[in-house]
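Session log. Operator J.P. requested a structure for one protein chain; no other inputs attached. Running the standard single-chain path with token output.
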Amino acid sequence: MEITKKEWKPGVIILELQGPLQMGVECKRLELAFDELLRNKQTRVVLDLSKVTKLDSGGLGKLVNCFSRLKTAGGALRLVGTTGMIDGVLKLAHADRFLKAYPTAREAAESFSDSTSSSAS
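Structure written below.
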């Protein structure tokens, strides 16, 4: 699995995942990417899953773990590209209830400013 990191705007990072996200090396790569983000105090993350070819229970567990670590650090995780099998896995595990998915990376990135401004009012 390959991970491409892009900064959408200051404070919002988009990670594009390509390939399978499953137990083992792929999960470790995602964990290390999140370790780096948290070290750099980057806690608003969009995960683009549109090029993920396979998601198993280990991959799902790692997504939930990353969500939880960001939330603990005061941040948030948004998903993009959850179609077909990935959407099915998220719904089956009821992870779609707290892992918010958006149609585009732009909408996901812009949702951060919405949630921060609405929570202030």
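Operator note: The CA atoms of residues 54 and 85 lie 8 Å apart.
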